[in-house]
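Input/output pair, single chain:
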Amino acid sequence: DIKRATRKHYSSEEKIRIVLDGLRGEDSIAELCRREGISQGIYYKWSKDFMEAGKKRLAGDTARAATTDEVKELRREAKDLKESVRLSTSPCKKQNCQLERFVPVQRLLKIEPAMRAVVGVVSVS
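Output:
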């Protein structure tokens, strides 16, 4: 079996910690990169990105990309809200009936007036 080396994915917090360690200057960049298991090219790319982000922030550009955790939380919240709306607007869930699908109101309003009375739709004027 051939085992492939997989790359470690660094979080933004880890990248910032490594860049700040390099900026402190306690160890050489080469030593820091060996200790962290990254190439010097990667370190300098992260350092450049860090400095550019700092410049943008100081210049008043406060827009930023959402973190993964923020995106997951927003998706979970949206899903919960959709489920809440679905449950609160579904007549079947309120009455605990077995009907899985029901005809949308817009479609029911197009039914002939005689049929509205049969299905119990109030006329809208």
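Residues 121-125 have pLDDT under 50 and may be disordered. The longest helix spans residues 68-89.
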